[in-house]
Amino acid sequence: MVKLDKIYTRSGDKGKTRLATGELVDKWDARVTAYGSVDEVNAALGVAVLNADGEMKAQLQRIQNDLFDLGADLATPERDKPLGFEPLRVVAEQTKRLENEIDAMNADLAPLDSFVLPGGTPLAAQLHVCRTICRRAERDVAKLAGTAGEKVSEHALSFINRLSDWFFVASRFANDKGRSDIKWKPGANR
Length: 190
Description:
Blueprint: E1 16-18, E2 24-26, H1 30-49, H2 54-75, H3 92-106, E3 116-117, H4 122-145, H5 154-174, E4 182-183
Antiparallel strand pairs: 1-2, 3-4
């Protein structure tokens, strides 16, 4: 269990931060950037939760917890030496749950015949914000995975990739199952 008894450490005053392993790194380190972007997704999701209810709210809250799991996974690099503790890692079942929820929501949606603009209901608009931040987090996690000497679990990358898809489908679902989607009209304002 996490115990935080002191919030400030002053190490950040010099542009440094510690990973879960205790390793001191620059605040602009690719790993810190990746889990920082994941944290941004979670903060945006916290706003979306305010407009959700029922099963959608429960799903969003589960995802918030999963995003903390992902952040812990990313903050604990895999090294070739023992850590002294069992690191928390994202598992395949978390991605599979997202896929199952995508399939369930998508079953109630009409197929797309155009791209949709972010908007519609307040919840749908907020889920589109989550989606775009999630796409950036996905790029940051993929960049970390492509960095020499860094390892990212396959489940971490697949989870964040599937999550951005989840947000897209959920935004349509929150738009009265797609009936309130705002469709893109190519060249409409020329």
